[in-house]
Amino acid sequence: MGDLFWNKLIGALLASALAIFGIRELGHALIHPHEPAEPGYKIAIADEGDATEIAVEAVEEISLAQRLSEASASAGERVAKKCAACHSFDKDGANKIGPNLWNVLGNPSASNAGFGYSPAMQGFGGTWDYETLNAFLANPKAVVPGTAMSFAGLKKAKDGANILVYLRSLSDAPLALPALPISLSDASEAADGGNGIIETIVDAAEAVFDTAEDGAEALADVITDDEPAEEPATEDQPE
Ligand code: HEC
């Protein structure tokens, strides 16, 4: 075992130590980010056992926000023809079989004083935010069991998003659309815009991969090859 062996071994150990240190740094960067004053998207974790459910809900919320950002109020107005037998949509419109739907989005359920709701709807006690109304319109009886709204539900998620942005437009003060979480392509722009945490994570990740790769290569050299490493091919070429 010549000096070279020990050089390589020490080099490999150093590289591995650096990789481990890098992973720790990355962990810190991920776990203690500098929180923005207003997070674009909040998840309240009540219980670790609910993590899967929370993840599923988060994905659903994100995809609803995404669909809403691509939805069209005029397409929603066409979908609303399915509701027109029972609902009017204009401001101060009359209640029919169902209540008038002007300004329904963002308001508590069963809040139209002139309409006689079913006990089920009176007892529901929800607020018609985007998620709740989206779920109700997809399957009314699943969200408000016993509701008097005899409507099977909108089958297409796209119809749901379109009608939500149409209902949103039926208000003097339309409810803000849910914030879209940062997409990966926006993330690098945000990094340029001074959001240092993203830059830090990307840098740390790159550093970890680089050092880990170097460490693995050096270890592989030590294990498989006692001879001095070959010079890179390009440097073998005569000038
Ligand atoms: C067959 C009639 C009928 C159809 C079709 C219908 N609804 Fe309804 N809707 C009702 C009735 C009745 C209620 C009251 C339910 C209750 O009291 O349980 C209601 C309640 C609602 C509510 C709750 C309103 C509040 O003030 O809390 C919303 C929102 C709503 N409908 C939206 C729609 C939309 C959007 C469509 C079309 C995609 C639709 N409905 C189709 C009959 C209908």
Plain-language structure description:
- The structure is a single chain.
- The protein is mostly helical and 239 residues long.
- The model has no long low-confidence stretch (mean pLDDT 80).
- Helix 2 packs across helix 7 (157-169) and helix 3 packs across helix 7.
- The chain folds into 2 domains: 3-40 and 182-236; 48-169, Cytochrome c-like domain (Cytochrome Bc1 Complex, Chain D, domain 2).
- It contains 10 helices and no strands.
- It starts with a helix and ends with a helix.
- Helices cover 54% and strands 0% of the residues.
- The radius of gyration is 29 Å and the shape is elongated.
- Heme C binds next to helix 4 and helix 5.
Helix-and-strand structural type:
mainly alpha
Global Rg: 29 Å
β-sheet strand percentage: under 5%
Question: How many DSSP H or I helices?
Answer: 10
Can you identify the CATH superfamily of the largest domain?
A: Cytochrome c-like domain
Question: What composes the largest sheet?
Answer: none
Please tally the β strands and state the result: 0
Which CATH first-tier class of the largest domain would you pick? Mainly Alpha
In short:
This protein is mainly α and 239 residues long. It has ten helices and no strands. The site of heme C (HEC) has 28 residues, from helix 4 and helix 5.
